[in-house]
Amino acid sequence: MSTFLNNFFPADTAAMDPIFFSPTNGIPSESKLATYMNRQNVATPTGYGLNNGFSLLNLDSPLPVNKKSQVTPQSPEFIPTRINSSPNFYAPPPYHNGPMQLTNGLNGVNGLTAAAAAAAAAAAAAAAAAASTAPTSSTSAAVAAAAAAASSTVTVTASSAPIAISGAPPNPAAAPFVSSMSAQTPLKGRGGGGGVGGGGAILGRQESPTTGSLGEKSPPHGMTPHGASPIPTTLPTSVHQENVGGTIYFYPTANAQNSQPVGVNNVVVDATHPAHHGVSAVAPLSSVSGVPSGLLYTGHVYPGPASNVIAMQPKTQLESAFFIPDEMRSEILARNEISNLIMDAAEAAQHALPLDVDNYHALYPLEPPAQPLHAKLTLPASTYRATHNTTGLKYCLRRLHGFRLQSTKCMTLVEMWKKLQHTNVVQLREVFTTKAFGDNSLVLVYDYYPGSQTLLAKYFTPTPETNNYTDPFQGEARPFSHKSNMQRTNNGPLLPESTIWSIIMQLTAGLRAIHQAGLACKVLDPTKIIVTGKRVRFSSCCISDITQFDPNAANPLALVNMHQQDDLTALGRLVLALACRCLQSVQRDNVQSSIDMVTRNYSTDLRNFIVYLFTTNNRRSVTDLMPMIGARFYTQLDALQSQIDMQEDELAKEMENGRLYRILVKLNSINERPDFNLDCTWSETGDRYMLKLFRDYLFHSVTEDGRPWLDHAHIVQCLNKLDAGSLERVQLMSRDEQSVLIVSYAELKNCLENAFSELMSST
Ligand SMILES: Nc1ncnc2c1ncn2[C@@H]1O[C@H](COP(=O)(O)OP(=O)(O)OP(=O)(O)O)[C@@H](O)[C@H]1O
């Protein structure tokens, strides 16, 4: 819903350009503004009296449903997966907000700063002077148009019945008609806009009819939540009003152009006031953020981080409250980089990979060529990252070279694995055979986790030390102490017990899911477990089930119990190796001394855990391990929940960015488009013209003395209101400062969606 204020009420009629002001309605048909008014092919009635027009503004009159639906829903983004989740911004605010709602339409009204209020007062005083000299009735306020060269100043001079300047909102109940001209932060210039920023045309706050004091937020007389329009029913015949598709425009008749400033109750447009360029002080954003119309978009404003999250962060600097923490950023960047790596020519030649393998392309090797799969399996194997042809998603492909599938019966097991979904198991997606590599290969497709390391690489690889220097501060023991030396292994210092328990909890969780699904891991080995950040996952499930499949066995799952017991033994060996940080520690001859070492360095619980898994004469179960983990489970849960809190907070910040980015993409795809459907004025006319002015308001606001006014918060806030389709209004000004337009963000949003849909439909 918008109101169009053309500063067509010239103070100096001699300055009138008869071409610019057409005799019928004062708007030249070829002007951009006229094209906006005529948009949507709505016939613009001529000679339509202001009285008639105001009768349309009855707050009781329901808005046609289809009109409402134009702006109510969050229109779908051009990203196909976007889900419509926008709240209903037209829900009527509670009546007790009435006084604030009254100023709903005029952005910045409610939050006048002292400076802005002072400016408004000055403007009012000047306007009063102008009114007193006007030949029209001194009892009614005058409306004067600013001359073309001078920006308009609209202010209030008297305390009679208020006047409506702007149009009925889409939902009258939601935004009662603005019956008081409220003061706005003076705005300036091309970018001059509503109360948030700019300078230029000043809409002075109407004096309260009850108090007569300028700048107060008193509701005007006659305002009822759902009652009759407070708008006066008599207006000068020299002012035309038109309702075009729900938007009300005001413009002068030819009469008005030849007459003195037209009195329209309280409103005076004072072209002569020295403050016509606005005041240099702009209302701080905070001054407008509290308006009730703002409530309509508050869901679209990032409220800042939660205190619990700030307390959790190592740095409590202000920047960490608004930007993603450095550590998280670099982790994500590193993962992205790995995920986007492509082979150079030398690598491509070395690997000689096919362009396509089944439904996948862009293969990228994750290891040097042709590794033997595993000690137990003598087949050579390779691991690649690849991209799915249709979804574009990246997967991890494990290829078994020269492997012929003996029987498709093993597909039963494949299906069981595909169904297994667990955060500690890399999920199998599909299995296929292919000749794309020039041999018979079997390919298993898994989820891909960029930046993963095998447990072997992470914990069992000698750390490169410069000049045999070992960092004495590594590890838990006091540096340079005897214990510190004892706790050092070739692969680095012993791991903190909490790290070992964290790995244990994750592995037992994954194993429990596997065993409960009636399967066995079979390769519980440090090369077949991957670590991504702090997450540990079984990475090669199902391979053994295929390669060791016996097509003659009556029941392929007959031996699963035995394999599950083997899994538990393998888990015990792995934990012992981790605790000693040495793979040799689990060799038969070393086991006892390794357990002694665990006894010396770690808790009895950890020792008992390992001993239990090594005790093979009893039937063991993964669920029996839970009591041994005990209360450590709560510590782990707490750590994970803290991490979730932090990540959710980051998500909230980044959600804002994503949303604002998409609006900017739309705006910029429309603004200044040189040509659309052979129409080189497309981006300059109709809805697009409004968007252009809004763009100027967003980015090109200037101070009174013409300096750029840059305020990130202003941009963010306005974009948020636009995205929410707030009913709050913004005052836009044409670049030549000839026209002022007051428009709600809802209307702007509508324009944006329409214009963008037009673009999209022609792509
Ligand atoms: N699902 C996955 N997502 C991302 N990277 C993975 C995934 N699975 C394995 N990797 C990575 O691929 C590489 C090769 O994995 P692989 O399991 O073959 O380890 P490996 O040490 O080469 O074992 P082997 O010596 O038995 O071949 C490793 O760097 C591993 O981190």
From TrEMBL:
Residues of the DUF4797 domain: 217-256
Transmembrane segments: none
Keywords for this protein: ATP-binding, Coiled coil, Cytoplasm, mRNA processing, Nucleotide-binding
GO molecular function, one term: ATP binding
Residue segments, region Knob domain: 670-763
Chain ranges of the Pan3 C-terminal knob domain: 622-759
GO CC terms of this entry: P-body; PAN complex
Major site of localization recorded for this protein: cytoplasm
Coiled-coil region(s): 631-669
Binding of ATP, residues: R398, D447, Y448, Y449, P450, G451, S452, Q453, T454, T527, K528
Gene Ontology BP, a term: positive regulation of cytoplasmic mRNA processing body assembly
Domain commentary: The pseudokinase domain, the coiled-coil (CC), and C-terminal knob domain (CK) form a structural unit (PKC) that forms an extensive high-affinity interaction surface for PAN2. Contains a pseudokinase domain. The protein kinase domain is predicted to be catalytically inactive because some of the residues important for catalytic activity are substituted and it lacks the equivalent of the binding site for a peptide substrate. However, it has retained an ATP-binding site and ATP-binding is required for mRNA degradation, stimulating the activity of the PAN2 nuclease in vitro.
The protein's name in its UniProt record: PAN2-PAN3 deadenylation complex subunit PAN3
The gene coding this protein: PAN3
